[in-house]
Design brief:
The structure is a homodimer.
Chain A lengths: L2 H8 L1 H12 L11 H18 L2 E6 L4 H4 L5 H14 L9 E6 L7 E7 L19 E3 L2 E3 L7 H18 L5 E7 L9 H7 L8 E4 L11 E6 L1 E10 L5 E2 H4 L6 H10 L22 H9 L4 H8 L12 H6 L3 E10 L8 E2 L2 E10 L5 H15 L5 E10 L2 E2 L5 H14 L4 E5 L6 H8 L3 E4 L14 E3 H21 L1
Parallel strand pairs in A: 3-6, 3-7, 7-17, 8-16
Antiparallel strand pairs in A: 1-2, 2-6, 4-5, 5-18, 8-15, 8-17, 9-13, 9-14, 10-12, 11-13
Helix pairs in contact in A: 1-6, 2-6, 6-16, 14-16
Chain lengths: 486, 486
């Protein structure tokens, strides 16, 4: 031990340049214009994995996996049938999985590592201080789309493996890597892919680094993720824009109808007003309330950091409870009619909203989507036509945190960061986690290294270089500790 | 008489080409990128007026007119003070007025003709069957932005004057022309311009052709226009877009706040819910109800023409009453957050709406704007900041229709179209009409030649070539009839 530490510090510049090259590829999975960049990112990654010393490196298509799940059991068939609805209505966008392994640590545990090389869109570009796909270092932070979510955190794993392989010539544990390209669009094809390749993916433990730490230099292990349901609302009125003077008063304005529909989705108290939305949602236990309340939280400081007059949300819950444990419904975008300079006195022909829900245990995305459809049907005014289309889904996940693999991870983190580990939940979603949990029966360790203020999906996303360094060391240490148990 | 008829028919092709050249200039007053085109349109028009045989042709700046109104009376000063608020908050956009006259009809009436050479934005361009600034004839209609509103109708006046001057060598009446470039942005500088140049603009009668006929080949005289108030609503939340997983539940989403504000502006019955909005608005008289009810109106046919499942609007009024006599509030555009392909799970940093009201007598735009400010203040939720900015204003206008000049216009229309004239109101606004009425004390004749289905502010705006021809003849005839009275 220790040799890898020196290797890491000697190769810091090389690693930084490799990481930057990875970040320069605009692998935006949701936009078809970036399909070529997605391929490029997958092959860049595969090439890099070979350089690290991993084996069986493959770029694998995820298309038609749903049709391919023929070898699976009846239980798996039933599980997969739940995904058919989710896939309806979405474009047949599939992006390859990059697989690699190193399996020579006989008698030692096998760790499956999951990550994703796709990123969120970078728009609005004008809010970035430096271009999103031109990584730039400022004040100890590397700025760029994907720096935290998730290319940076994948790279920490690859640096750790490279350091171990190049110095000791072997890894302390067996490793399998699955790095996908559809996470930011809800992993539509991955469940089928995983089940199709269940033999190849057998492991003792799943490790994911795609969450945040508690604060700068305060490591954390995440024990709960929210699920996701996203959908688009399209309101159609007249077949083309109408002069508001000429027709104002004669037809229902699609923007008014959309505003009414959006407004109908929340109560004045900030709760979600979709009928049945909270059915089956467990109240937070007293234990968990106390754990969460014990974590540092300062509403005034957060409000000031985010630039809002005050925080806001569902009554009866603290800010962390609302962010981690309670489900939400948020409009991600709205548009209709004239948006240019000055004015244009029209009744727009149509209006649109992109909406997503964060879900908690016992909220199945398909069931919630049906409730939303029913709600919209009930609230659609007579003069317009409304269409609602599901665009993504992922199940929520909560794990017990007393598993030995979790305890070892905590130990590795404490050694590398020289600070106590907090157990936290995350408001975000990693859609595939639930499939790993229920179909693979694997214990899952979520150790993330992003700053809570990293602005993962917004402009100026960044990664702390200090977290990068200490996190990589924590991972080397984690494999050592796990290997000693084996 | 009659010579001008032959002249018009001989010069039809030449006139059509000149009109098309005028339409090719994208004189969009609201967009600063078209400032050069606005200048070009003004000078094109001036050159054309010289060719027609008009005199004293001038392209006159409207900038700083508000400061120039020094020579006016105390009553005028007071009137102008009302415009200062309307001008605050708008860009200092001013576009020149084109003036011309012909004043050799001694002892005959002087007619002031008002029109505008600016047009509405053409977006969304993809909905145009032929490009908006490449005029094209299909099935007896000329398609192009401004073909009806208002370049086409200006051109009818110019053709009529040219035909009279080139054949008789004189006009039967004195003519003054004021053609402005700020109508589509609410004529912010024109009131001051008119009052500054009141001596130059002395006349016996104001004629405007900027309204529609009742139906194809059914001429109409308009006796009422709605006023206009336009404003922009800006909702600001967090200082940048936030990941909805990470912060969902912690802050108020600006799109939700905007939807709530927009939804709060109407009652479930389709009436405007701004407190005090209807104060002082007169109920429709029984007489007028009967006149309007006697006009052809078919709700099912209109709904089908517009492509909506059914018409919609304030309860207790017929469709024509809602379009002509009742005030409205319409969102012209809404935007905020992600609008691209696929999904982006963010809480948007801000959200915006462009809104305009059509006003009726006793609704002063400034008073209505104050009510809207108060309403928004009352309904703004705590977690966001809201700004409301007035962007345009114009007063409503209703005239008695028994004036001899109106009766002569009806006679000229009936002769040219060989059809009965209807007296109608219009839902649209010509902001400057009220200034002419109250400050110049002029009788106003609104004879418009657009099709009610011309789609003036939308895509595929068009003008009937048959209306163009008959309307030009009606104008020649009108000046003859007026001259015989003189």
């Amino acid at each position: 031990m220790g040799e890898w530490k020196q290797y890491l510090s000697e190769n810091q510049t090389k690693h930084l340049e490799q990481w930057k090259d990875f970040l320069r590829i605009p692998s935006v999975s949701t936009m078809s214009e970036h399909r070529g960049d997605m391929e490029r990112a997958a092959h860049f990654l595969a090439e890099h994995l070979r350089g690290v010393g991993l084996e069986h490196v493959r770029v694998m298509s995820t298309a038609q996996e749903l049709e391919n799940v023929r070898t699976s059991t009846a239980q798996q068939q039933e599980y997969m049938s739940g995904f058919e609805t989710s896939q309806q209505g979405r474009d047949s966008t599939s992006h390859p999985v990059v697989y690699a392994d190193w399996l020579h640590a006989q008698g030692r545990p096998t760790v499956l590592i999951y990550g994703h090389y796709d990123v969120q869109p970078a728009e609005p570009l004008e809010l970035w201080q430096s271009p999103p796909f031109e990584p730039e270092i400022r004040d100890g932070m590397l700025y760029g789309r994907g720096s935290s979510d998730n290319k940076g955190q994948i790279f920490m794993h690859l640096q750790a493996m490279e350091a171990l392989l190049k110095t000791a010539g072997e890894l302390p544990v067996n490793i399998k890597l699955v790095i996908e390209g559809e996470e930011e669009i809800g992993s539509p094809n991955l469940p089928a892919f995983l089940i199709s390749h269940q033999d190849m993916l057998q492991a003792d433990l799943l490790v994911i680094s795609d969450t945040a730490m508690l604060e700068a230099d305060q490591p954390a292990i995440c024990y709960g993720l929210r699920g996701l349901l996203s959908f688009q609302l399209d309101v159609d009125g007249p077949k083309q824009d109408l002069a508001s003077g000429f027709y104002g008063g004669a037809v229902h304005n699609p923007v008014h109808a959309l505003a009414q529909l959006v407004a109908s989705m929340h109560t004045p108290d900030g709760a979600v007003a979709i009928e049945g939305f909270y059915d089956g949602v467990n109240e937070i236990s007293e234990d968990e309330r106390q754990v969460i309340a014990s974590l540092p939280q300062d509403d005034a400081a957060l409000a000031s950091h985010l630039g809002v007059p005050q925080l806001y949300g569902e009554k009866g819950y603290t800010t962390l409870e609302r962010r981690w444990v309670r489900p939400t419904l948020e409009v991600n975008g709205i548009y209709g009619g004239y948006q240019g300079e000055g004015e244009k006195t029209i009744i727009p022909a149509d209006a649109h909203a992109k909406i997503s829900c964060r879900l908690v245990p016992n909220q199945h995305p398909d069931r919630i989507f049906s409730m939303i459809q029913a709600h919209i049907e009930r609230h659609t005014p007579p003069g317009v036509r409304v269409t609602v289309t599901q665009t993504g889904a992922g199940l929520p996940y909560v794990t017990p945190h007393d598993h030995p693999a979790v305890q070892l991870a905590a130990q590795a983190l404490e050694q590398a960061f020289e600070a106590q580990v907090s157990f936290i939940r995350a408001g975000g979603s990693i859609p595939i986690v639930e499939t790993f949990a229920t179909q693979f029966g694997l214990p899952i360790v979520l150790i993330g290294f992003a700053l809570p203020t990293a602005n993962a999906h917004g402009p100026n996303e960044h990664m702390s270089l200090s977290h990068m360094e200490k996190g990589t060391r924590a991972l080397c240490r984690y494999w050592e500790l796990l290997g000693q148990q084996g």
